[in-house]
Amino acid sequence: MRILITTIIIILVSANLSAQREAANWYFGQNAGLDFNSGTPVPLLDGQINTVEGCEAFSDSNGNLLFYTDGKTVWNRSHQVMPSGTELGGSFSTTQSALVVPNPIDKNIYYVFTPDDALSKNFGQTTNGFNYSVVDMAKDNGRGDVIDKNITLLAQCSEKVSAVRNASGDYYWVVTHFRNQFYAYRVDGSGVSENPVVSTTGPWIGDFENIRGSLKISPDGTKLAVAHTIVEPEYTGSFYLFDFEVDTGVVSNAQLISSERLYYGVEFSSNSSKLYASGMGITSLDGEKVVDKVEIVQYDLDAPNIAASEYLVFRFNKAINSFVAGALQIGIDKKIYHAIPGDRLSVIRTPNLKGLDSDFRQFYIDMGGRGATYGLPPFIQSFFETIVTIENFCEGDTTQFTTESNGTIASISWDFGDPLSGASNYSNDLNPTHVFSGFGVYTVTITVEYTNGNTRAFLEYVEIAEVPDVIQNVQLVQCDIDGNEDGISLFNLNEAIPLFNNGNADITANFFGTLQDALNNENILAPIGYQNSVDGEVVFARAFENSECFEIVEVELSAQPLTDLEFYKDIDLCDGTVGILATIVNMQEVHDQLYIDFAQDDIGLYLTEDNALLEVEKLPLEERTFGPFDPLLVYFRVEQGNDCAFIGHVTLNVHEKPVFDELVEVIACNGEAVLRGMDGFENYLWPDGSTQQVYSVQGTGNVDLIFGNDSCSYLQTFSVIDEAPFTISKIIINDFRPSNEVIIETELPDNMDGVRFSMDGGLSFQESNTFSRLLPGVYDLVVSDGCTEIKKTILVGGVTSFFTPNNDGINDRWALANPEFFPGAEISIFDRYGKLLSIIRNDGPGWDGTFNRREMPSDDYWYRLRLAEGRVVTGHFTLKR
Fold first, then answer.
1. Which UniProt keywords apply (predicted)?
2. Nearest Cα to 181, choosing from 97, 252, 229?
3. How far apart, in Å, are the Cα atoms of 354 and each of 273, 302, 310, 335?
C-alpha cells in the first residue's frame, strides 16, 4: 500500500538579497569539517582546528569560507593562521568558545566574541572574561587580519553565548550570562556597544565550576534557552526557558523546564516550535550522584505545559568518560546535529516534527575519517529562521509552500531550483505549489518585499524523496521464553526493519496496532518490549526515509516454541584475568565456544535475558570486566536468518592464562635437544603422544607442546635449531703482576644467550669472562656453551715475590717461574740505587743473592725482564736472610 502525505523538511536562511550561506562550512573536533553548500553535509579534510569543545566558522553569503577559530587562534580560508590571529581570549575547552557576528554595514568587519572558561580558575589564572576581537577581511589580500584583539566587555562571564538579528535586520543582539544576569550587547553599523541590556532573572549560578553549558536564542528571536551544567557541589540538572524581546534585548519569564539531567547542549528547531537538549542521566551510586548515559530530549513549545511535553529522542547505550553530553547545532539544511567523541555525528533529520517523527539517526554523518569531540560551531540563530511551511515530499507529489505572512509581505518571487520543470520553476504566488521533476535535494530561493519597504532573500533546501522501496509483508520471529509455550513473547519491533527495507539503511519505521493508526500517524507503539496478544498478531510499520513519505508494511509477530534453552552449560575460559576486585573475560572466547555448537547461526551475547530477548545492548566481542559481586553469567541469542532460534545462558569458569613464551628457541647439541615443559601443570602432550614434562628430540624444526590443567590447555612451540658456532676472538693476559689477570673475549651468534668459562680444564665454570688473582703457571682454558667446548692452554708468567738464600733448600734462588716457556728471556737485577748486580737467563740456575761473591743484605731489589719477542717487564722482589 502506498501512502503519500505531507511533512516539513525545509532549509531556510534569511537575509538581505544574498544567498545566505554564512553557516555553510563547519570546522570542529579533531581536524573535522563539513560543507553544507549542496544541502547535504560533505566531509572537509583540510581543517587545522583541534579542539575539545567550542569552535566557530564563518562563510560569506555565497558559502565561501572566510575563517574559523577555536577561540584562541584564527585560521583564514587558506587554513593559515591570520596575522595577529593568536592568543584570543577564548579557550578550546569552553562550551561555546567563539561566536562571529558581522558588522551590518561594513561587509569587511567581523567581531569574534569569546566567553569565559571554567578551567581558567583551576590553574590559578585570572578568568578570561567576555571579550571580542575584530577581523578585517580587506586586509592581507582579502584573507583577513585581526586588527584589534581581546576588547573586554565583562571581567567574568559564563561559557555561553548566542546571537540573533532584530526584525528589521539592521543590528544584532549578542547575549551571554553570568550568575543570574543576562547581558545583551547590540552590534550595529557603528560597532559593538559596550553598554549591555542587563536582565536579572533565573537561578543564581555562583560557583565558577558551574558556568558550563550552552545558550541559544530561537531563530524567530522570541525565546532563549540555557543549560546550566551544575557539577559542584554535586551533579544537578538545570534547564531553563525564557522569553526574549528581539527589539529591546530583554530576557524575562524564567521557566524551569527540567532538572532530571546534567544538561549541556541546546538547540531550537528552525520554526522555533521545538526545543532540544542533551544531558547526562543522573543516578546515585553509594549515596553519591554520578552521571551515566547521554540522553537527547525534545520539548514542544506550543504545548500548554512545556515541561510535561518532554519526549526522549534517544539514549546512547554506551556511557562516555565525561560529564559533558555534547553540543547540539542546527545546520542550514535545518537538521540538528549532535557531537560526542567518535568518527561520526548523529542527526535529528526532521526536528520541526513531534516525537518519533523528528527522526533521530545515531552516528549517521560520515566525517571522512576525522574525529568529533564535544563541540560544534554556533552561528547567529537568525540564519536558520523559517517563514515557510513546506508539505508533500514524495516523488511525484504536488509540493505545497505556505508563507507565514501576517499581512506584512507586499510581493514575493520563487525560484524552485528545478530548471527541468520549465516555466513552472518560477512563481509569484504567496503560497505556490510545485511538482519537482524527480527525487533529490533542490535549492529554493525566495525573494520577499515587505510592506515596510524592506527586501529579504531566503534560501531553502527541499528534499524530494523516492517512495520507500520495501517488502509489504514480513514475519518477525521471536523466541518464547516465559515458561508458557503459548506463542506470546516480548518483541523489539525495530528488528523488523532490516526484513523489509531491502538493504536501504536510510529507511526507518514507526509501528502501530491498526492500519488506521498507521495512516493517521497516531497511537505509536513503543517498539522495544512490545508484547503480542496472540501468536501471529499483525502490527503495521510506517516505513520512511523522510518521515511522512512512507509505505505501510504488515509485520506478523510469531513466537517460536521450544526455544528457551535456560541454563545451557558451563564454559571454561582459559585466557582470563582473575583478581580480587575484577575478573576480565574475553567475550570473543565465549562466542567462539558457543559457535562450535551453533556454527551456521548468528550468535549475540548479552548481560540479561531481557536484553537478549529484545536484542538491545549487545556485548562487543572484546574484553569485559566483571566486578567482585557480578555473576559470571552471560546470556546468548542464536538467530537463523533474522529469526530467533534459541535463548539461553552460560556460566563462566574463568582461568588465568599462565605467563610463558609461546615460542622458545633451543639449540641442538650434537643433533639432540632436550625440551622441558613449564613446571606446575598436570598435563603434557608431545607430538609422539609422550606425556612427560621432559622430552628429547633428534634433529631440528618446530616441536609443539600442549600443556595445561583440567579443561584448559595451552600451546607452546619449541624451535630446535642447529648449534651456531662461537669463537674466541681475543685472550688478554695481564701477567708479571702482583695480581695476574686473564680476560677471554668471545663472538657469539645472535640466538646464543652466553657461554661459561673454566681455567682448570672444565672442573669448574664461571659466567664471568675474567679470571683475577692468578698465580704464575700453565692453565687449561675451556669455553663452553653447554654443548661445544673450545680448549686452549694459557701461560701466565711471573717471578717469585721473595727468596731466602740460606741454603735450607727452600727458595734459595730467585728465578723466572716456568722458565722453559720463555726461551731467550734475560733478567737484569739491580739494587735500590740502580746498580746492576747480576744478569740471569731462563736456562740458568737463577740469582743466589750475591754480588762479586759477597752476600747482599736483606732488602728490596729491582728487575728488568726482556723476553725474546721484545716485551720488557719491570718489577721488584724481596731478599730475606
1. Signal
2. 252
3. 9, 11, 10, 14
